[in-house]
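Self-study notes.
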Amino acid sequence: MSEALEHGITPYKLYALRDRGVVELVSRGIYRLVELPPLSDPDLVTVSLRYPNAVICLVSALAFHKITTQIPHEVSVAVPRDSRPPSLDRPPVRAHRFSKSSYEAGIETHRIDGAAVKVYDREKTLADCFKFRNQIGMDIVLEALRLQRERDGLKLGVILSYARACRVDKVMRPYLEASL
C-alpha cells in the first residue's frame, strides 16, 4: 500500500484494482499483481514486509535452513525487547523478545521473491533453539543439531559464541561434545 501511495495510486484506485482482479490482497496493506508467479514463501515475505525489524527465528528458521522435518504452524520472529511485537491475522506470528546483543547476533538477509527477509544463520538458530527448548521441544532441537552435523558439520566455535550470547553455553556444551 505504501509503495502504491508513493507512485500516486490512491487507496480507492488500489481497491478498484483489487475488485477487478488485477491485484490481490496478500495480507493487510500488502497487495501484489495477480499475473505474477506465486510467492515461493508467502508467509516469510509477508511478515518481513509488514515488520522489517523482525528476524525469522526458531522452528521457522530451522525450516528455512532445511535442518528440521517440522512444518511450522506459525512464523516465529525475534524482535528487540523494547519494540512492539508484530500481530497479523495471517500468517499467524509468534514474537519472541530478545535482548539487544542476542537480537543483533547472526542476522542474515536473504532475497525471497524480491523482498529482503532477515533470518538468523544456522549456528545462531541452534543456540536460540536451545534457549527456547522448553517451548519448542528438545526432540526438535536435537534433530536440528543432528541434521546440521550430517549436512554441513558443526562450527563449534561459532555455535558456542552464540550460546554464550544466549546464555545457554553450559546447557549446550554436553550436547555438542556428544555429537562429535
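Second protein, same conventions, sequence then structure:
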Amino acid sequence: MHGKDNIGFLFDLDGVIIDSERRYTEIWSEINVHFPTGVEGFERKIKGTTLSNILSTYFHESDWKAIVRMLDEKEQSMVYDYCPGASELLDKIGSAGLRAALVTSSNEKKLAHLHKELPGVLSRFDVVVDSGMVCRSKPDPEGYLKGARLIGVSPSRCAVFEDSVQGVKAGQAAGAFVVGVAGTMDVSDLYPYSDIIVNSLEEVDFNRICAILESRSI
C-alpha cells in the first residue's frame, strides 16, 4: 500500500532533535584528558555510537566505572533545548498524522533527565528506540530497522535524520532515505552516505520529503 499512511520518520536525538552535541564534544574531550585514548579526533569518531561501544572500543575495562560516573555527573547538569527547526518539523509530522520514531544511542538514565529538562519531547514520538533495545551500535542499521518495524513502515519508505557519520551510514544500510544534518560533522563527511544534506531541520521541505517517500518502493 502506498501513500502518506505508509511513510515514516526516524530521528537521531543529539544534534538533530536536541542541541547537545557541542557540550558532548567538550565532555568527551575532558574524559579523554583523564583517560587518554591516544586516538586522534576521538571526540568526533564516537559520534552516534552507544556508550557500551565507546567503552569497549577505546578504554580499559578497569576505567569503565570511573568514566561512566564522570559522564553521568556531567550529563545530569546539562540543559536541553530543541535544535533549530526540530519542534516545527515534529509539529508537521504530528499534524499530518504520520508516524515517527526516535532512534538514539542514549540510555534510559539520560532519557529520564531529558524528560525532566524538556517535558513532552519524548511523547512527540510514537516509538523510542534507546541503547538498551539494540545489540549493535550505529553504523549497524539495527536501531533504524527496529524503529521502522515498530512504527509499521518499510525502512525504504522512511526518512532518517542524522548528524553523525555513524548515523548516516546506519540509515543508508537500513535502506532508508537519509537526510544528513550538517553542523556536528562537515558536509563532506556526511555527503557519501546521505541522499540530501541540510544545515538544520529548518531547511527541510516537509512536502518534498513526503513526496519522495511516497514514490519509493516497499
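Instructor comment on the second fold: Strands lie at 8-11, 99-103, 127-129, 158-162, 177-181, 196-198.
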